[in-house]
Amino acid sequence: MKGQARRVLRHYAPYQNNLQSCFPVHDLRWSVWASPGHQAILTPSEMIYVIMGVSGCGKTTLGAYLSHKLGWPLHEGDDFHPRENVEKMARGEPLTDQDRLPWLLKLHDVIQRERSSGGDAIMVCSALRRLYRQVLLFGSEALTYSSDTAGLHMCSLPGVWFLFLYGTYDLIHARMVARRGHFMQPGLLRSQFDVLEPPAEEENALLLDIRRSTDDICREIQEHLRQLS
Ligand SMILES: Nc1ncnc2c1ncn2[C@@H]1O[C@H](COP(=O)(O)OP(=O)(O)OP(=O)(O)O)[C@@H](O)[C@H]1O
Ligand SMILES: O=C(O)[C@H](O)[C@@H](O)[C@H](O)[C@H](O)CO
């Protein structure tokens, strides 16, 4: 068992009898689930960074860079879109919630697999709306809660952090126009901003300004990782 996991178990042992129901401990990289009369169960979940933001904000660029720096596997969300979605975007039509849902569920499965195998990983996914992020974390369960309940209780999972790349429309549009050979048209950027719901703090989000270089952004993420360890 890892040193950190041992420390976590020691810390929570005295409180175990007072716990009324199963609950996740949110601020730890290791997931600990405890319930009355049961030993805390340690599940193997290391860190998963989901790089999010509108099209053209630099997700793929940062994902590749970070994956190389950290030696973590990279899951590129675009590779999981069904062909119809890619064709739709290439025609200049924005995706709807219905188009995105099966894609988000597939990405949820990837996150689940990584969490249960205890590996670190990076995922690139626009994750524009809060509900999309909840589907990434909780799968179809996120759809069965009312928005109030979901807003209160289903906003984060231990060991999964959203890295939100933010910047102005003009900066991102200029980068998209300069980019070559990508199916996503700059004309779709406005619709991406229309749908975007920036992540709130309780969603385990780190906000990263895209005016900085990829290397600078990467350093901040490495610092974040050091602080959590
Ligand atoms: N920090 C940065 N500084 C300057 N240019 C950048 C930076 N990050 C990315 N770029 C450039 O911006 C463009 C968009 O980046 P990228 O393709 O990584 O965005 P994306 O969010 O993955 O887009 P999409 O969601 O459409 O696939 C690319 O041409 C890339 O080289
Ligand atoms: O949610 C969405 O609308 C899509 O994921 C888009 O963000 C594209 O996949 C991406 O931007 C193109 O690479």
What do these coordinates show?
This protein has 229 residues and is of the alpha/beta class. It folds into two domains: 3-43, no CATH class; 48-228, P-loop containing nucleotide triphosphate hydrolases (Rossmann fold, 3-Layer(aba) Sandwich). It contains nine helices and eight strands. It has helices at residues 3-12, 59-70, 83-90, 97-117, 130-138, 147-153, 169-178, 189-195, 214-228; strands spanning 23-24, 31-34, 41-43, 48-52, 74-76, 121-124, 160-166, 205-209. The strands form two sheets. Strands 5-6-4-7-8 form a five-stranded parallel β-sheet, sandwiched between helices. It has a three-stranded antiparallel β-sheet with strand order 1-2-3, with helices on one face. A hairpin with a 6-residue loop joins strand 1 (23-24) and strand 2 (31-34). Helix 2 packs across helix 9 (214-228) and helix 4 (97-117) packs parallel to helix 5. The chain starts with a helix and ends with a helix. It binds adenosine-5'-triphosphate and D-gluconic acid. D-gluconic acid binds at residues 55, 78, 89, 95, 100, 126, 128, 184. Adenosine-5'-triphosphate binds at residues 55-61, 78, 126, 175, 179, 184, 210, 213-214.
